[in-house]
Amino acid sequence: MIRIKNSKLEELANTHYKAILNYVTKSNDKKLAKINLSIKSCFGDEWNFEKLIKAKPKELEILANIYKFKCCASVINFETYYGYLNNYTDKKFITDDKKRYRAYELIKSLDINTCPYCNRNTIYNLKYSKKRTSELDHFYPISKYPFFGLSFYNLIPSCKVCNKIKLDKADKEYINPYDERFDFNKNAKFDFKIRGVYFYRLEKEIKLKCKINEKTSIEEKKRIKNNIKDFKLYDLYQNHKDVVLELIQKEYIYNESYLDELMQNYEGTLFKNREDLLRLITCGYVSDEDLHKRPLSKLIKDISEELGLSK
Ligand SMILES: [Zn+2]
Questions:
Q1: pTM of the full predicted structure?
Q2: Which residues surround the ion ligand 1 when the cut-off is CB under 5 Å?
Q3: 3-state class (DSSP) for residue 10
């Protein structure tokens, strides 16, 4: 799993809110008042439509708990609105500057290339047909938490596999990829063990695992384990041991003197700097912000660090 890091998240959440608000208030002024009344009656006077749509992961958690313990009979259901957002052809949501706003535009503005839950599959938008290859996972499923159907931080761009695996599981606690309180990138790392001398031709002699930083809080550990277990990450990543083997081979080939030689010969022409050269060799990305750019970047980064290939 990787974090969704985007410096404009609050701005994007605001655009998202405004586009929905424009539709809600367009035909009927009383609609918004009704929605607000419903939200207040369930969650308290301090909550309204805007706050619900922009609620951060930590706030969604608080609201989900209130909902669990309180009977919110009149709570608003945003499923129909979500249908508009998710429809390729719908023109119901329009931004303040009169541009169409759908899930396609939401994904585009997030600028994320791979699924944050698995980092295995790409979730690009298709530029020419204007379609998506992604799905929007409701972190809190719409079937159990209908009022989170449009909340910005509850909509997780994901691949079809992960969305299907997760489905309605909400009673277990996972890490929301937007949640700044948890750092999966730092606290959960891929690791490997060589179990036999023929590992370079026998994949089974390489054991791939995921280790959790000992200093991680109990709460975060629990969530990381839930993510790994329920998204079948351990199982899925066993199919990528060939990548680990390649990195081990590269570590031998690209020793320090060879790296120096390449730097002397090609720095500034074939690559910008040492970081760029290492990216070229490992076929991954080094910084946390860039992990989303290519599938398996998190695996490549962790194993490269373990091998000393990233310095
Ligand atoms: Zn995925």
A1: 0.91
A2: 115, 117-118, 159, 162
A3: helix
